[in-house]
Amino acid sequence: MNIVPFDDRDGHIWYNGEMVDWRNAKTHVLSHGLHYASLVFEGERAYDSKIFESRKHTERLRLSAQYLDFDLPYTDDEIIAAKEALLAKSGLKDAYIRPFAWRGSEMMAVSAQNTKIHVAIACWEWPSMFDMDAKMKGITLDVSEWARPSPQSAPVHSKAAGLYMICTLSKHAAERKGFQDALMLDYRGYVAEATGANIFFLMEDGKIHTPIADCFLNGITRKAVIGMVKDMGYEVVERHIMPDDLAQAKECFLTGTAAEITPVSQIGDHHMNPGSDCRNIVEQYAKLVRG
Fold first, then answer.
1. Are residues 147 and 121 in the same domain?
2. Can you say whether residue 251 is alpha, beta or left, with left for phi > 0 and alpha for psi between -120 and 50 degrees?
3. Catalytic site residue from 83, 135, 137, 159
4. Helix runs in the chain, H state only
5. Residues 6+ apart with CB under 8 A from 232
6. Domain end point (choices 125, 160, 190)
7. Digit-coded pLDDT (tens) for 253-280
8. What is the domain-level CATH number for residue 87?
9. Annotated catalytic, 116?
């Protein structure tokens, strides 16, 4: 596989209010964000040159920063305008957009009261993956040994870089066992989410069940999909789901900026058959994001 490193690409990155050549968008190695995980980010998608739910993502970026005890030095309108300007400059129509903010290098200790807050935005090509035949095969999930922490243990409602290390470890372990991703339980043993996406189950009762987002991100795509499937006539049940409940799941799918709607065919020893419900939801989501 020929992988192009993310530090050696053509284009521009919006960096602290300026368009900077991609290769020159650098920060110092002694950055608090690198050493102490004081970094927050968003993952967004543009479809046909329009960023999906741009303001909601910007509002969450600000909230994530506040959870980590810092404020963004730009208004929401300024960040939204910067994303749109960067997307236009890139010439891309279907793209992934990554705004992020972090503490700088003024202090290198646990305390970071006097660090400068940096903000940057990058975007790159990411075509929408709507190959229906491939999508409907579904992906496989292992069950992770790592658990989502309690709200008393971590800023669980922030999209903070440090919270993703257990996701990386979980996905690596799953891939080594032949799975494509991992299902994470929470600190109480309830079903939580995949490593980078929320999860939904079509149960035998004909309703769509999804875990209560009380110790992990209530995803922007998750919320959009809940509204969408309700409009389609489904009843959505948000509840605590135990691993044993998976035996009653007929179909399953993930939701997220990158995942969009991704059907699941296996979780551990449980097998599901992505069918007409998943297909209809995938098709409707494609219409939603391009509407």
1. no
2. beta
3. 159
4. 32-36, 54-67, 76-90, 132-135, 165-176, 220-231, 276-289
5. 280, 281, 284
6. 125
7. 999 999 999 999 999 999 999 999 999 9
8. 3.30.470.10
9. no
